[in-house]
Write a structure and sequence with these properties.
Radius of gyration: 15 Å
Strand order of the largest sheet: 1-8
Distance between the termini: 9 Å
CATH architecture of the largest domain: 2-Layer Sandwich
Structural class: alpha+beta
Number of strands: 8
Strand content: 15-25%
CATH class of the largest domain: Alpha Beta
Shape: globular
Number of helices: 5
Helix content: 10-25%
Order of helices and strands: EHHEEHEEHEEHE
């Protein structure tokens, strides 16, 4: 299965992956209308540790502990992609606590959000990958 991988040596820490993610998931056709003067809540985020920057996103684990911990059944895995049913999420944030990668976060509507590989916004390739100027984020299948 294809997944998102990050090469921290190439990451500039520019946060463009976050903006492209937020725009792709906004439902807007115009980036300025989607993001200007708004607090963005991307499904990927950039971290910095000892001057090393890297993007954090869902790993779509083989045996996801977030799904096991979800008391409402909002998290499921279909065709290898872990997704969230926003209508089922009760906002208990247990999945945020158990994710070993820090890839699940609170959304603006009191539920949770995480990378779903842009399967619901018809981008084809995830928006963070398309928008990374240094190609530090890739979408590929590895052994």
């Amino acid at each position: 299965m294809k997944r998102i991988y990050v090469n921290e040596e190439w990451c500039l820490g520019c946060h463009l992956c976050e903006y492209n993610c937020a725009f792709a998931n906004s439902g807007e056709k115009n980036m300025v209308k989607a993001l200007k003067n708004k607090e963005i809540k991307p499904k990927i985020h950039v971290e910095e540790d000892n001057k090393i920057t890297y993007a954090v996103s869902c790993r779509h684990c083989e045996d996801p502990i977030c799904i096991k911990s979800c008391i409402s059944g909002a998290l499921t895995k279909t065709n290898g992609v872990v997704t969230i049913d926003q209508n089922k999420c009760i906002g208990c944030f247990t999945c945020i606590l158990v994710c070993p990668y820090g890839a699940v976060s609170a959304s603006n509507d009191h539920a949770v959000q995480k990378c779903e590989l842009c399967i619901n916004n018809s981008c084809g390739t995830p928006a963070c990958v398309k928008g990374c100027p240094n190609k530090a984020i890739v979408y590929e299948e590895r052994n």
